[in-house]
Amino acid sequence: MHNLTFFPVHPSLRPYVSGYMLFEHDFLVPDRPIFSPKGTAALTIPIDVSEGNFLAYPTPLDRHYFEAGVPLLFGQMSRVGYASTLGRFKLFIIVLTPTGLFHFLGRPVDKLTDKIVDLEQLGLSGVKEQLRTLFASSQCPKGWAMGLDALLSDWFLRRGAQKQHLDVSSICDEIIRLKGNLSLDGQLCGGRVSKRTFQIHFKQQVGISPKLFCRIVRFNALIDAMHAAEKFDLLELVVAHGYTDRSHLHKDFKDFSALTPRQYLRTHFEINQRVERVLVKNRGRFSNDS
């Protein structure tokens, strides 16, 4: 059984949260699926995970085991990760916007890039207990989504949006709209800041550099296009997605999936593509509605 269900968030949360996802899968044989960067941070709540399953990130030696009801915070990811799975795998995921983690924590997030941490390590034991209570009180995914809307709305209302003289969220939206093909060499923010200042603010608010964020967005747009086409020509994809040549395209595949394009499609494509399609679809809708 394999299921991926998306739940929208309350409109007031759209600047911070892209949506909620319920991922369910029964792995009948041992598997080692990859998970590639999506351009966002996330809070993951294990609902029902068989004993011994873990995530290996950012290296194969860094193992993160699941405990039912104990949330894990995934900082911005810049590289491919692996899971070791057998049996039941059921997760509820709070997918943040590119700048959502910055507003959630109220401080720069670049120190959390490529990290998976317990909320207690961030001084958020109260939020951790609220999440555990919410998911223990009901077995209804829609109920979880409604409860999260209330919990997160209260959290962001009390914390308030982080006041910055440079808010990069609109630039993130533009990068996503252009599928990663946005030149960052021209006038940024109407020429109000230098390129260096912009890069510093972007990394503090998103967790990675604007150039790397563009690469990740472009990579996910690429795999979505590969899936949508009955047949595809790599040279056409190179041109369509702004790569300089095939080796440039292959480098992104190796960096973000550790595979060649054809290996990725054969072995690890389905769930990564379905997640990215949900994120892209709803990012665009949320950006237009905001």
UniProtKB/TrEMBL annotation:
InterPro entries in the cross-refs: AraC_XylS_family_regulators, DUF6597, HTH_AraC
Residue ranges constituting the HTH araC/xylS-type domain according to the UniProt record: 193-267
Keyword Acetylation: no
Keywords carried by this UniProt record: DNA-binding, Transcription, Transcription regulation
Molecular function per GO: DNA-binding transcription factor activity; sequence-specific DNA binding
Classification via SMART domains: HTH_ARAC
Record has Transcription regulation as a keyword: yes
Protein name per Swiss-Prot or TrEMBL: Transcriptional regulator, AraC family
Source organism of this protein record: Lunatimonas lonarensis
